[in-house]
Design brief:
Distance between the termini: 49 Å
CATH architecture of the largest domain: 3-Layer(aba) Sandwich
Number of strands: 13
CATH topology of the largest domain: Rossmann fold
Number of domains: 3
Helix content: 25-40%
Structural class: alpha/beta
Shape: flat
């Protein structure tokens, strides 16, 4: 059994003293991401790490930790299929929260209920300090009675017998706009080639982004797509279990599915975030077959990608690409794709991936809303 390089470092803990359970739980959640939710495998790794780094004591062992996980509702027994243990929904929630803290740890809580202002006023549902004259069709609850009475006194004397329509003032309201986002994750085989685990950080970012939207921007929507030879939607509950396959990279299929999902969204603001480390090497033909070419950049496949970039631009949907690769010819492809789409591209390593996705998400909201 080989423990993958995860960037973990063991040393003296500084700060509030954590309980033995808390310390092991932090590591266990990290291992669950690496094992794609395979609990038994994660526990095997935890026992190996315990032997190497003395993580537990005779008073609190890994077996005690497993019992606590079950008692606290993080693990459940599998009855069928030979038994064993599996994650619960509570664990999936803990993984999202942990990812949020790791990726977006610098976020500060605000009193904002999670909606994003536009610079436009209208029939939204958040009052501003600005007043304007009443217009036919304004909702009665927008009328400011105190200011309207004062306005009547100014216009028609200190004690008017009745209110006129021209006396009425209403408070402007801000639209609370929504943003619909599709996050595309490359599951091609190159995501685990060359001894580098690229899929685990990608999953962590998706988990964190989902939790960020759920807690801070509840009116926004996030859909997640995996793409390899084909593209398919991923439910949030499936995300920790996502694994790389022996796939090529069908970028066109991912963009088509993302476009279809966004077409059905009512939000006026839409975007696609794409995490990939490889060149497009596959397209789906009209008869359902796949045309594949892993050698260099295939002109036919590249042409299809550029066509999708133009179509998305016409639909007002920007694509932000997070490129986990340094190959100059691949970066040039992304530059051309981005220029046609009028989107954005980041050329990043794994370490800064989360902060870059967050930065782009926040900037896109401010720019588009």
């Amino acid at each position: 059994m080989r423990i993958p390089h995860s960037g973990l470092r063991f040393g003296a803990y500084r700060g509030r003293e954590k309980s033995p359970f808390e310390r092991l739980f932090e590591l266990f959640k990290e291992l669950l991401l690496h094992t794609s939710g395979e609990v038994e495998e994660a526990l095997d790794w935890l026992r190996v790490l315990d032997k190497e780094h003395n993580l537990t004591t005779s008073e609190y062992t890994v077996d005690d930790f497993v019992e606590d996980l079950k008692k606290r509702g993080y693990l459940r027994e599998v009855v069928e299929g030979g038994g064993g243990l599996e994650m619960s929904a509570k664990t999936e929630q803990a993984l999202r929260q942990s990812a949020l803290e790791k990726v977006f740890g610098k976020l500060k809580k605000t009193g904002n209920a999670g909606n994003h202002r536009t610079r436009y006023t209208g029939s939204g549902d958040e009052d501003t300090a600005e007043l304007r004259a009443y217009e036919y069709g304004d909702a009665p609850d927008t009328i400011s009675m105190t200011e309207s009475l004062q306005n009547a006194q100014i216009l028609r004397g200190p004690d008017p017998e009745w209110m006129l329509e021209s006396d009425l003032l209403v408070r402007e309201r801000l639209h609370k706009s929504q943003l619909s986002t599709v996050l595309m994750i490359d599951l091609s085989h190159s995501m685990i080639l060359y001894g580098e685990d690229r899929i685990t950080p990608a999953k962590r970012v998706a988990l964190a982004l989902a939790e960020l939207i759920r807690t801070r921007y509840p009116k926004d929507s996030l859909d997640i797509i995996a793409f390899g030879n084909d593209a398919w939607p991923i439910e949030l509950s499936e995300l920790p279990y996502l694994q790389v396959g022996p796939y090529h990279t069908n970028t066109v299929a991912g963009l088509d599915l993302a476009s279809e999902i966004l077409r059905k969204k009512k939000a006026s603001n839409k975007q696609i975030l794409m995490i990939t480390d490889g060149k497009p090497s596959c397209v789906t033909e009209p008869d359902g077959s796949h045309y594949m070419n892993s050698v260099g950049l295939d002109d036919y496949i590249v042409g299809k990608c550029m066509g999708r970039a133009a179509a998305l631009r016409k639909a007002g949907i920007p694509v932000t690409t997070f490129m986990i690769a340094r190959d100059p010819y691949l970066q040039q492809f992304i530059r051309s794709f981005t220029e046609i789409n009028k989107g954005k591209a980041f050329y990043t390593g794994l370490k800064g991936l989360g902060s870059l996705v967050f930065e782009d998400y926040e900037k896109n909201r401010k720019k588009r809303l």
